[in-house]
Structures are given as structure tokens and as C-alpha cells.
Amino acid sequence: MFKYGIDILTLKSVNEIANGTLKAIINDEARAKINSCRNKVETIIKSDKVVYGINTGFGPLCDVQITESETSLLQKNLLITHAVGVGENIDKQLSKIMMICKVHALCQGFSGVRFELIERIIYFIENDLLPTVPKQGSVGASGDLAPLSHLFLPLIGEGDFWINDEIVPAKGVLLQHKIKPLELQAKEGLGLINGTQFILAHTITGLLKMNYLLDLADVAGAMSIEGYKGSSSPFREELHQIRPFKGSIHVASRMRALFEGSQNIASHENCERVQDPYSMRCIPQVHGASRNAFYHLLELAEIEMNSVTDNPIVLSETEAISGGNFHGQPLAMALDYCSIAASELGNIADRRCYLLIEGKYGLPRLLTKAGGLNSGFMIPQYTTAALVTENKSLCFPPSADSIPTSLGQEDHVSMGSISGRKLNQILENLEKILAIELMYAAQAMEFRRPNTFSEIIEKNHAIIRDKVDKLEDDRLLKDDINNMIQLVKNEKLIVKVN
To answer: Among residues 15, 117, 135, 236, which one has the fewest Cβ atoms lying within 10 Å of its Cβ?
Structure first.
């Protein structure tokens, strides 16, 4: 049982809540914090004190005071006017993660919204009433205003839901569930749409995917080394202890485990080759550097998951601070760093693909014995090259850019929403690159039989062969590549070594 506003949200728990395997509730302690903060807002409303976002306009209109009678219309207008996102809708699972993260932030008792409003969002989560949210339109400061506005339009009977992969107007869905639209009160519109939950949801999904792909990259690299008859000596522990980066040590340890018991590795321990190319030899250093970037983003994401990122922050009956916790820069910069890290995993994988078709050390050119008549595995490497270049082009850091908005009131923005979306694009391309490398490595390993490999590599080779046959003569490879991509996307290959 996860307690919103009390327990620590993690990458694991947010994913389990979204998948329905972990129940999340508001307990009495969190409810007391929510109600206490709401009472502070009510006190401010009844006073003569001017407080941004409670009895004023927003952004450049912060100097316009709003009467108590106008408060509800102001909050409704806030959602409607800020729902200006464009482009395709995000995946509905992202919408659910956004709502989970927003509920957790609101339950910490600094946002001043009513308990009733949070209950309604939880009802949406638990009943898979997932609002449609366009991908584009957030600059990632003042929070993700446009995406969050779309996310919460259904609270007031506007916007749309995903219902069985169809887009359905929220008004009709609420009627079916016998739910009346909420009438927002002071501070509630701003509490809903200020925050980094769009950036954060993309960060969470990116981290979940990258966690598997980091492990898979090690497996693909080990299988390529086996096919290439490369050396395992660059992964010895004593080498990495004298340059002890966390990622490098971890990857080297995994590589040793992936080669454990390999007859193929042992068969050429005393061969005449002195060293392997960098894409084989430097896997701990390169994959490890990508892991270091992952660790950094994970640390920041778990801080953000448990933070309050709306504005203003209500501290007492007389004080609500208008600060900048909504600014997405802490995640934006790390997302851009992680994008480079993910891109480099694909870059080095493509180089290993090239080495396997080069025709050296007992491997036939293009991994086919009937070269000339057959092109073998010549052309899939064109695809990895194209994907690698596409990823490189996606590595421009949006966090390095800023365009002033809100008549200059919001004069420096993070563009973190773009950083989050681009990381996930790069990871989707990486899935395809690693899928092709694994197909190449499995083919190369065929030429090393009757040698055997470690248990985990043999199992993965069998998983691949269940979907993709050894290439004897040229055939349409599109289906093979798609089958490999599905194995990667569905996380069917074994990556855990300990």
C-alpha cells in the first residue's frame, strides 16, 4: 500500500501504481495536511492581503487583483486558456503517470487545493479515465502549463478521455460515471497546471526503458565479442579498480559474468591477436559512461517525484511564496546528458555490427558463405548507420535554449518537455539498433560452433533463433528485423547476470 504525500515515490513504485499492481491511497495524515493547507488559502481569501495566484491574475497580470466572487471563473478560465497544446497525443500511460505524480505532490500539503479535487484525480487513475494530452506546447517553466491544462480539463467537464483507444469527449464519460464536473476554487487551477509532471513522466518512462537497454547493450556487446572471437581480458577487475568509475566497474563485472564458462572464449586465449578495436575493448568505459548518466538522471528524477513543483507555495495563513519550483531546468539538463548517453550506446553498437561483417578472424564477409550471389548482412548496417545519425541529430540540447514568454515575465524557460520527448525518441531508435546488432551477433556465433558459450548467452541465442533463423541464402530480412525489435521492446531477452 503506497501512501500519497507520505511515502517516498520511486521509479519502481510509480510504475507499479500505473500498472495497477500497487494500491495507492490518501491516509489520515495526508488528508490532514491537505485540509490544513486549504484552510490557510481560505484565510488568505478572506483577508485584504494580495497573494499571487490566489486573488490575483497570472503571469504578467499578477498585478490585477481578483474579487472573491470572481475566483471560480478565474480558475476555470486558467485551464481553458492554457490548453493550447498541439500535435499528436502522448501515450495514455504517460497521462496516468502525470496524474500519479501530481497527486503525490498535491498531497504534501503546500498547494492549497481541496481534498475533493485530489479524490477526483485518483478516481480517474483507478478507473483508467486517462485524459488526452498533446505532445507539443510546453516550454518547461511555470511548469508544463499546456500539457497539464489538457490533463485536467476533464475535471471541469472539458477535454477528452482515452476510452479503449478511442478519443471520447469528457462530458459524456463523466455522465456515464454519474460524476458532476468540479467547480474549481481559489488556487486550484494554478495548483493543477503549475508543475513539471509532463517532463517528469517522460523522464520516468525514459529511465524505465533505458534501464533495460543498458543491460541489453552489455549482452549484445558480449555476443558480438563471442562472434568476433574477441578477448575477455579488457574486463578484468584489477584493470577497472584503478580507474573506479561506478558505471565502468559495473559493466566490467557484467561482462565477466556473461563470458563465464564460455568454451569459445577459452579456445583462443593464446592466439596471435594483441588487441581488439575500441568498440569491443572499451565496452566498460563507453557503456559505463552511459550508466553514469543514467544514475545521475535517476537520482534527480526521484527527488523530483517527491517534490512540490507548483506555485505559489502556501506556508501559512499570511504567507504564500511565489518562487520557481516549477522550473524544469534540473531535469532538462540531465535529460539532455542522458540523451547523449543513449545515443552513444547505439553509436558503438553500430561499429560492432560493422566489425562482424568485415570478414576477419574466420568470419565470412557479410556473414554469408555465398558472398557475391548473396548480400548477406550487408544492408541492415545501413539501417543502424541511419538510426545512429538520426540520434546524433536529436542530441542538440533543448535546455541550452530559451525563448521568453508571458510578456517577458517568464524570461528564461527550460524547454525540458522537448528534452524528455527527445530522450524517448533516441531510446526507441536504440531499441532498433540493438535488435540488429543481436541479429548480427547470433549469426556470427554460428561460425564458432561447435564451441559453446556461457549459459546466459546460449539462452539468448536460443531466444533469437526461435524468432529468426540462421541466414543461409538471401531472404527478405524485414520480418527478421521486426521480430528482433519486438523481442527487444517486449524485454524478452535475458539481461540479468547475478
So the answer is: 236
